[in-house]
Specification:
235 residues
């Protein structure tokens, strides 16, 4: 596959993903979401799962947030600026495809991302638990006075227990980088994303979710416990 072909396939993938998001959002009111009680975990288990998002050298000293019926709350106070929590599919996109109880992903945000990026997840979660539909959430998020991603914002998703969706399952352990919106241009070409054998992956969802940043994934070679992971070979 040459570079131009890789770029075209990435563009096609973005179009398909956006069409799917719109279709699912329209169907959200036609299906019943499980009660929030089904997403609540035993505190010790949720804390352990949240910590698994990053190596223990980071997560053992992080603030840990757990989900309640009203939203996320700090269960453990850390001292290194990192924040770890277990995110459900609907905490980012409240559509039926993300209501599955299997979709849960431990994430650890560094200090910069905890001050900025994490606020969007917390806000969307609260709105969802208040009973707002995805369409209503999108309107409210577009008006929310939340900051853009701070420089150097990074998140870790290195848990063996993560479950992205039924297709990707645990996918790869990876880091997420939250960059200036200008880096969205031409599907992340400034990062060389999604090009032949490039290890960088561009996330096309930002523009649809009112997130003022460009997001890139970089898979890594091991899980948070140090065990080897499948190697990502690029596009």
């Amino acid at each position: 596959m040459n570079l131009s072909c890789g770029f075209a396939m990435t563009a096609l993938r973005v179009c398909v993903l956006l069409a799917t998001v719109i279709a699912l959002a329209g169907a959200a009111d036609a299906q019943t979401k499980p009660p929030v009680s089904q997403y609540l975990m035993k505190p010790a288990a949720e804390i352990a799962l949240a910590r698994s998002a990053a190596p223990a050298s980071l997560s053992d000293h992080a603030t840990i947030m757990t989900l309640t019926v009203h939203g996320y709350t700090a269960a453990v106070k850390g001292n290194n600026g990192f924040t770890c929590l277990v995110e459900w599919g609907w905490t980012h996109l409240n559509v039926p495809a993300n209501w599955s109880l299997k979709i849960k992903n431990p994430v650890c945000y560094n200090a910069a991302a905890s001050r900025t990026v994490l606020l969007y997840t917390l806000k969307r979660t609260t709105l969802t638990l208040d009973g707002e539909s995805e369409a209503q959430i999108e309107q409210m998020m577009s008006r929310a006075a939340l900051p853009p991603a701070a420089p150097d914002s990074i998140a870790y998703m290195m848990s063996k227990e993560q479950y992205i969706d039924d297709h990707a399952k645990s996918w790869y352990p990876h880091l997420m980088f939250f960059m200036p919106e200008a880096d969205n241009a031409n599907l992340g070409i400034s990062w060389g994303a999604d090009r032949l054998r490039s290890p960088v992956i561009f996330d096309p969802h930002g523009g649809t979710l009112h997130e003022p940043w460009a997001k890139f994934f970089i898979p890594v070679s091991h899980w948070s416990d140090g065990s080897p992971a499948p190697l990502y070979a690029g596009t």
